C-alpha cells in the first residue's frame, strides 16, 4: 500500500461513498482536509453559518437518500452544528458533521477554540468520535457512513485534531469499498400474524410514516394496499409515500397537520398497520382518543421504538421495504386481489364531504388560498421544503404530494430557518428539479444569510413566504392565556423589507397582496429563477389573525358526525 496524507484517504472515502457535494466553512483547524478536497471532484459549497451547512447537508441527504456531509473548523463551528445534528437525529436523516480541533497535546490547556465537541454532540448523534491516530482516518470514516445508514438512520460527528489531520496513513482506494449495511428482514411468524390481523379487521388502515420514504418502499406499500384494498394514511414525515390522488388515500390524522376526513377515517377504523412511524405527539394527540376502539400493528426497523409511546397489539421488527414486500407476498398467497368494498367507499365519502375550503377571494389573503395556488401551479415532481409554524400546519392540511422525497419537512425538531439552506441542498443534489421553499417571515430571517450562498453559487429555487407579520403560531397559542405578548414583528414600522433584502443579495423578489396575483407571481418567480440561476422570493401578505385548526386530541377537532353503529356495521363488509 502507498503512504499518503490521511486526509487524502478521507476524501477518497467520501468519493467512494457517493458524496459529490459538501457544505461548510474552512478555518485554521480544518485546512488539511480542505487541502485534500481541492484536488477531488467533490464540490464544496461555502455557507455563511455552520447551522446553515448542516441543514443544507440534511436537505441533500433527504432528497438523495445518501449521507450528507457538513464541515467546519474548531470551537463555535461545532457548537453551531448542534441544532442541525439534533434535527437529523429526530427525523432519522443520515449525515456526517466533521469538525476541526486543536492539537491533541493542547486539548487539556484550554487552547484557542478547543472544546470537547464529542461530549457535547453525543446526545444528538448516533456516534460522536474524535480521531486519535492518522492510521484510523479511512476506517473511522467508513464506519461513520455505515452507522449513519444502518438501522434507524441518523447523524455522526467526527472531530479531527489538527496534528492528526497532518499525519499520513497506508491506504489504497482500489481495494477499499463501503462497509455493508444490514437490511433487517421480518420474521415469517410476525408477517403471518400481521396478515391474520389485517384480513380479520373490518375497517383497517395502513399508516405510512417517514420510514417508508427513507426505505424507498413506496412501491411495496402501494402493492399491499391495492391487493387488500386497505386505505392508506400518511404522517407528516410520510407525505409522498402514497400518492394523494389515489382512490385509497385516506388523508392525514393529527392535531395540527391533518385533514378533517383523515381524522374521521382514523376514528372510524378498527385496525392500524403503522409502518416506519413514531406515533409522535402531534400525530396522536390524546392517546386514549387515538387508541380507543382499534388495534395496532407497529412495524419499525429500530426495536426500541416499538412500545415507546404505547404498546401495540403486534410489533414487527424489520426494514420497511422487505417487510411490506413480505406482507404483500403473504397476502397474495392467501387471497386473490380484492375488489373495492364499502370501507374504501366510506373513506372516499369522507374525503369528498369533509374538505376544508381553499378558494377564498378575501383581502387580506387567507393562507389556504396560497396553498391552492401552489397545488395548481406546480407539478408532481416539484420538491417542496418547509419548516415549522402556522405555515407548516397549513401546508400539512392543504398541500398535495404525489411522490416520495418531494415533500421535505423538519418534522420533529422544527428549527426555524431550515427551509432556505435545505432547499439549497436539494437543488445541489438535483439541479434540474423545481425546488420551492415555503417559509414564514420570522423563520426566513433566522438563516437568511444563506441567500448569499445560493446567489454566489447560482443555486436557483423559489421561496414562497407566508407573511402574517406575527409570530403567528405563538400568537395562536397565547389565546387561552388571554394575552398577545411579544409576538408582533412591526413590519409596517421600520421592520425588514424582504423585497429590498433580496435585492441587496442581487436576487429578484415580488410582494403579493391580492389573491388573484399569486399565480402570476409564481410563474414569474419560476421563470426568473431558471433564467438568472438565482433564488427568487414571492412574499405573500396574508391576514394577520389567521389561525390553523388544531387541538389537544383527534376527538376535539374531528368536526364530523360518525355513522350510527348499525349503519357503520353494514358499511364495512369487505365482501360487498
TrEMBL record:
Signal peptide: none annotated. It comes from the Bacteria. It is an enzyme of class 4 (lyase). Its EC number is 4.1.1.47. Keywords: Lyase, Thiamine pyrophosphate. InterPro entries: DHS-like_NAD/FAD-binding_dom, THDP-binding, Thiamin_PyroP_enz_cen_dom, Thiamin_PyroP_enz_TPP-bd_dom, TPP_enz, TPP_enzyme_TPP-bd. The keyword Lyase applies. The keyword DNA repair does not apply. One of its GO terms (molecular function) is tartronate-semialdehyde synthase activity. Residues 8-119 form the Thiamine pyrophosphate enzyme N-terminal TPP-binding domain. Residues 191-327 form the Thiamine pyrophosphate enzyme central domain. Residues 388-540 form the Thiamine pyrophosphate enzyme TPP-binding domain. CDD domains: TPP_PYR_POX_like (cd07035). PANTHER family: GLYOXYLATE CARBOLIGASE, THIAMINE PYROPHOSPHATE ENZYMES. This is Glyoxylate carboligase. It comes from Streptosporangium vulgare.
Amino acid at each position: 500500500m502507498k503512504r499518503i496524507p490521511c486526509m487524502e484517504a478521507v476524501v477518497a472515502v467520501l468519493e467512494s461513498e457517493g458524496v459529490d457535494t459538501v457544505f461548510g466553512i474552512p478555518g485554521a483547524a480544518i485546512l488539511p482536509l480542505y487541502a485534500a478536497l481541492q484536488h477531488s471532484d467533490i464540490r464544496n459549497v461555502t455557507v455563511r453559518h455552520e447551522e446553515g451547512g448542516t441543514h443544507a447537508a440534511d436537505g441533500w441527504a433527504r432528497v438523495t437518500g445518501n449521507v450528507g456531509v457538513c464541515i467546519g473548523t474548531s470551537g463555535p463551528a461545532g457548537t453551531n452544528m448542534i441544532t442541525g445534528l439534533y434535527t437529523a437525529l429526530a427525523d432519522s436523516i443520515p449525515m456526517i458533521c466533521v469538525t476541526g480541533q486543536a492539537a491533541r497535546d493542547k486539548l487539556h490547556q484550554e487552547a484557542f477554540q478547543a472544546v470537547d465537541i464529542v461530549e457535547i454532540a453525543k446526545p444528538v448523534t448516533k456516534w460522536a468520535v474524535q480521531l486519535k491516530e492518522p492510521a484510523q482516518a479511512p476506517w473511522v470514516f467508513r464506519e461513520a457512513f455505515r452507522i449513519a445508514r444502518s438501522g434507524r438512520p441518523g447523524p455522526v460527528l467526527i472531530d479531527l485534531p489538527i496534528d492528526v489531520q497532518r499525519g499520513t496513513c497506508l491506504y489504497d482506494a482500489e481495494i477499499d469499498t463501503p462497509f455493508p449495511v444490514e437490511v433487517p428482514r421480518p420474521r415469517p411468524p410476525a408477517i403471518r400474524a400481521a396478515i391474520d390481523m389485517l384480513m380479520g379487521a373490518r375497517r383497517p388502515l395502513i399508516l405510512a410514516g417517514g420510514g417508508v420514504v427513507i426505505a424507498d418502499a413506496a412501491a411495496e406499500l402501494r402493492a399491499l394496499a391495492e391487493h387488500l384494498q386497505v386505505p392508506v394514511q400518511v404522517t407528516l414525515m410520510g407525505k409522498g409515500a402514497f400518492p394523494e390522488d389515489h382512490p385509497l388515500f385516506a388523508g392525514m390524522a393529527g392535531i395540527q397537520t391533518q385533514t378533517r376526513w383523515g381524522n374521521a377515517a382514523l376514528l372510524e377504523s378498527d385496525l392500524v398497520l403503522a409502518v416506519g412511524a413514531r406515533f409522535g405527539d402531534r400525530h396522536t394527540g390524546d392517546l386514549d382518543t387515538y387508541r380507543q376502539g382499534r388495534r395496532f400493528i407497529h412495524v419499525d426497523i429500530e426495536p426500541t421504538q416499538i412500545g415507546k409511546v404505547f404498546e401495540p397489539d403486534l410489533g414487527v421488527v424489520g426494514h420497511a421495504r422487505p417487510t411490506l414486500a413480505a406482507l404483500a407476498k403473504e397476502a397474495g398467497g392467501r387471497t386473490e386481489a380484492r375488489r373495492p368494498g364499502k370501507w374504501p367507499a366510506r373513506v372516499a365519502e369522507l374525503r369528498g364531504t369533509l374538505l376544508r375550503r381553499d378558494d377564498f377571494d378575501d383581502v387580506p389573503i387567507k393562507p389556504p388560498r396560497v396553498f391552492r395556488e401552489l397545488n395548481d401551479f406546480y407539478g408532481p415532481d416539484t420538491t417542496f421544503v418547509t419548516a415549522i409554524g402556522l405555515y407548516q400546519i397549513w401546508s400539512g392540511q392543504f398541500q398535495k404530494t404525489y411522490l416520495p422525497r418531494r415533500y421535505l419537512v423538519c418534522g420533529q425538531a422544527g428549527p426555524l430557518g431550515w427551509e432556505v439552506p435545505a432547499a439549497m441542498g436539494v437543488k445541489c443534489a438535483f439541479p434540474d428539479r423545481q425546488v420551492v421553499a415555503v417559509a414564514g417571515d420570522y423563520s426566513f430571517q433566522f438563516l437568511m444569510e444563506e441567500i448569499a450562498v445560493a446567489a454566489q453559487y447560482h443555486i436557483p429555487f423559489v421561496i414562497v413566504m407566508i407573511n402574517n407579520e406575527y409570530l403567528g403560531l405563538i400568537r395562536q397559542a397565547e389565546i387561552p392565556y388571554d394575552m398577545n405578548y411579544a409576538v408582533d414583528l412591526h413590519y409596517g414600522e421600520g421592520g425588514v423589507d424582504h423585497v429590498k433584502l433580496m435585492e441587496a443579495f442581487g436576487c429578484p423578489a415580488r410582494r403579493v397582496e391580492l389573491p388573484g396575483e399569486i399565480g402570476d407571481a409564481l410563474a414569474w418567480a419560476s421563470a426568473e429563477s431558471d433564467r438568472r440561476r438565482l433564488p427568487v422570493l414571492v412574499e405573500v401578505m396574508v391576514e394577520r389573525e389567521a389561525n390553523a385548526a388544531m387541538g389537544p386530541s383527534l376527538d376535539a377537532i374531528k368536526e364530523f358526525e360518525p355513522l350510527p353503529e348499525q349503519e357503520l356495521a353494514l358499511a364495512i363488509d369487505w365482501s360487498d
